[in-house]
Amino acid sequence: MPSSVTTQIHNCFPCLDYLYIQECDEVNGLQWPISFQLPQCLYGLSSLTRLVLISTKIKNFPTEVMATLHALDGLDLQECNELSSVEGLHCLPSLKRLSIRQCPKFHSLPEGGFPSSLETLEIIECDLGLMERCQQEQSLEWLMIQHIPNQRYF
Length: 154
Hints:
Blueprint: H1 4-12, E1 18-22, H2 34-37, E2 50-54, E3 60-61, H3 63-66, E4 74-78, E5 85-86, E6 97-101, E7 120-124, H4 128-135, H5 140-145, E8 150-153
Parallel strand pairs: 1-2, 2-4, 3-5, 4-6, 6-7, 7-8
Protein name: L domain-like protein
Organism: Dioscorea alata
C-alpha cells in the first residue's frame, strides 16, 4: 500500500528508470530516513529498469511492492546485512539479472520462484548453506534455478 512518502517519490520521479542507493539513511533535505522506508518507497515506480541497493537496512522485498516494478530488468543487492528474503520476483516479467552479494542473512530463495525472463543469477558471499543447496543436484533450490542460463555462487 503506498504511503505519503511513496506518493511523493512517485510524483517527483514518474519516469525514474535507474535508482542507486548506497549507505543512505537520509537524502539531502528530505525529512525521512530512506533506509527505513525501503522497500515501500519503491511502490509504483513502474518505469524503474535498474535498482541497486548497497549497505541499506532493507530486510525483505514483499510481493506487493515487487508487483508494481513492471519494467525492472536488473536488481543488485549488496552488503544488505539484514536482508533475509526477496519475495515476489515471479511478478517481475522483465527481470533479466539478479545479483545478491554479501548479504549474510539471505538464506532462502523466493517461494514463488523466479521469472522465466531471468538470464543471470548471482548469489555471492551469502548464507553458505543456501549456496551449497543451489549447487546440489535435485535439491529444491537447484530445481528452482536450473532453467537460468548464467549462475554464479561463491
